[in-house]
Each structure stands twice: as structure tokens, then as C-alpha cells.
Amino acid sequence: MFESLKRSFRKNQGDPIIVVSGLPRSGTSMLMKMLDAGGIEIMTDSERVADIDNPKGYFEYERVKDLEKETDKSYVREGRGKVLKVISNPTIAYILLILGMAGLYFELSTPGAILPGVLGGICLILAFYAFQTLPINFAGLLLIILGVMFFIAELYAASHGILAAGGIVALLLGSLMLIDSPAPFLQISLSAIIGVTMATAGFFFFVIAAAIRAHRRQPVTGHEGLIGQRGVVKTPLKPEGQISLRGELWKATCDETVKPGGQVEVTGISGLTLQVKKLPSEAHGKG
Question: Dihedral (C-alpha) 152, 155, 161, 164: value to the nearest 10 degrees?
Fold first, then answer.
């Protein structure tokens, strides 16, 4: 918004235009009143009338609210030497909140990273500072926080994605309910809400899919990784002997007698002794 306004100012150079900017309910109307009392003419169309929330008036100029879409900016010439009010977008406060919670999530999921936690904390403080000036629906805010708690719980509970799905629903509903005002310019951008929700859903679906693949994958380290491995008999198994497995000698037992050179497969482990079975090829060879 401000870049578009700057471009218009450059094309219409002359007396400076004073811009008063801030989030809704941050005191911009009071500052406009002060500048008016100080003798600086206010640029307003008076379309938004005073109400119970602001009985002394808003001093707004409606065309500025659609500055990015407005193609005709000839009205900027009329603002020379005047003061113009520009309301910041509440979407910024919402994005700061989401970034802050994302930072804390990554800090909890990867302890010791530090940077995500630091940035997340800063974003949260800035978001809550901005929310002081906005008509916040605390039910919406609690839903967003609940959604983040579901995401964190997904890290520690084997819910197979149920907690993550609940978190996505809570995040979406909370985002839609966050601002308690019918005024269009106070609403969070729907594209921002959809973008945040889809990005969050995509991330967690990726994480859950990776966890499922890792769970299904056969272990390759530790004793569990030996199950199903094949070895070569070094000393006769009758029923106990030694086998060579992965270049190491292991004590092994088998229900059948197996001669040296025979092939066996590990079926279990008891302490440091492998339980093996004779492979079919060895059985056929014996006959």
C-alpha cells in the first residue's frame, strides 16, 4: 500500500502530504484530531461517520483503503499540504502470530536450535502488541492456540494424523473468527488465511507420511536389524554353533543340524545368541 502511495506522491510533487498510519484503534483518529487542532487541514470525505467506538469521528478517506486497486490517483494532488490517514492491514498482525507460533513449534520439535525460538518469541510479542488495537474475538485466538497445541502433541502421540487434522481445522476456524468486526477493512485477508492453512496442512501431511514410511521400513541397525539377515555356518549347528554374518562371528542355534558352509536366516535373538533356521536351498541340497 505504501509503495503505491509513494509512487503517486512522486508523480505529484509539491507541498508534502503528511501521512498518519497505524493499526485500527491505535490512536490514529486522535492524532488526526490533534493535527487538525494544530492548523493542518485534514483530507477526509466524511463517509465513515462517528459511532459509539469513536464518537469524535474517524477522519478517513475511503479511496485510500483500496490504494492498490485504485487506478485513478489524481486525488493525491488535492492532498498537498494536508494530512492523510492510512490504516495498516490487520493481516500483518495475523501473519506475525502464525510466524511466532511456528517458531515456537520448531524450537520444541528441535530443542537447541535457539534461532526459531528467538524469532518466534519476537513475532509473538509484536503480534500481541498489534492485537491490543484490534477487535479480537478471543474464541478465535484460543482456537488458533489449540490448533498449535494439537500440532505439538502430534510430535509425541501416535495419533496417525488425527491430532494434526484437528489442528488444521482449529487453525482455519480460529483464523476466520479472529477479528470481531463487520468492517471489511478490519478483516484478515482470506487469501492469507487459506495460504497459511494450506501450507500448514501440506507440511504436516509431509511429516506424517515420512513418519509412516520410516515406521514401515525394516530396521538396519541394532539387534532388530539382524532379523531376516542371512549368514553362513562356520561350525556345525547341532543345535549350537557359529555362523558368519556381516563379516562377524555369531553364536547361533538351530532346530536342525546344519553343516559348515550351509545358509541360514536369522529368526530371533536371545541375548547374544542368534536363533536361525535352515534355508530351503540347504534342505534341498541335503536330499
Answer: 10
Element (H, E) at 60: none
Distance between CA atoms of residues 175 and 192, nearest Å = 10
- As a whole number, mean pLDDT of residues 76-89 equals 66
Q: What is the pLDDT of residue 146?
A: 92
* Gyration radius of the chain's alpha carbons: 34
The pLDDT tens digits of the residues spanning 171-186 come to: 999 999 988 877 666 7
- Within 13 Å of residue 253, how many CA atoms lie on the same side as its CB? 8
Count the neighbouring beta carbons within 10 Å of the beta carbon of residue 118. 12
The alpha carbon of residue 2 and the mean position of all alpha carbons in its chain are separated, in whole angstroms, by 28
* Three cell numbers, residue 147: 490448533
What is the DSSP-derived secondary structure letter of residue 196?
H
Cβ atoms of 23 and 88 closer than 8 Å = yes
Average pLDDT, the chain: 76
Phi, psi of 192 (to 5 degrees): -65, -40
Whether the predicted pLDDT of 273 surpasses 50 = yes
pTM: 0.53
pLDDT at 190 over 70: yes
Residue 267: strand, helix, or coil: strand
Tally the residues of the chain. Answer: 287
Place of cell 530371533: 268
